[in-house]
Amino acid sequence: MEWDKTAAKFVEALASAEPTPGGGAAAAMSGAMGCALVMMAMQTTANRKSTPENVKAKLLQSLKKMGSLKEELKNFIRKDGEAYAAYLVAKKLPKDNPAREQAVQDALVTAAKVPADTATTAIQCLREADLIKADIAPVILSDVYCGQHLLKACVKCSVESIKANLEFIKNNDWVTKFEQHITLFLKSC
């Protein structure tokens, strides 16, 4: 099993003293795993002989949407690390550099945008899962519920990443926007 080695590497990277991957990457990974579990349940149900053709068609259509959302969530794992790296670059600019403060602020906004986009994508997955849940074969429905729990964890952890950056963002418009996002995100869970 090659997948277990990859999973183990990611877990060990999270456990290391390195700042990345961190909470944002873990949130995105949680979302990607949740989405993937729902997809597995959809595919399993669609492949059953006893599943009506109209339900199969509905599941296969939804599966395409979920596949796209899963890829987005996977990309946010990488983007979270890139956002943090950009922040570090900005912080290393000389303190007397007039562009430093704006670079730091831009990096902080990006570091908050990534988890906001991650949460938005996870919520789209949750909505899609709700649309197909009644069609899933009972024998595998628990995987949909597990997927939804992972997607909700993604949203909640993304909120924590937003809050961590929000504390240092000085632009009130961005602060207000992110605070509104947080409220909406938490209502979805």
What percentage of residues falls in helices of 4 or more residues? over 70%
Shape: elongated
Average pLDDT number: 95
N-to-C span? 34 Å
Derived from helix and strand composition plus strand pairing, the structural class reads: mainly alpha
Number of strands: 0
Largest sheet: none
Tally of helical runs: 6
**Could you give the order of the helices and strands?**
HHHHHH
Q: Over all CA atoms, what is the radius of gyration? A: 19 Å
Strand content: under 5%
Low-confidence stretches: none
Which SSEs are present, and which pair or pack?
Layout: H1 2-15, H2 23-46, H3 53-91, H4 100-132, H5 141-166, H6 172-187
Question: How would you portray this structure in words?
Answer:
It is a single chain. The chain is an all-alpha fold. It is 80% helix and 0% strand. It contains six helices and no strands. Helix 3 (53-91) runs antiparallel to helix 4 (100-132) and helix 4 runs antiparallel to helix 5 (141-166). The longest helix is centred in the middle third of the chain and has 39 residues, at 53-91. The radius of gyration is 19 Å and the shape is elongated. The two termini are 34 Å apart.
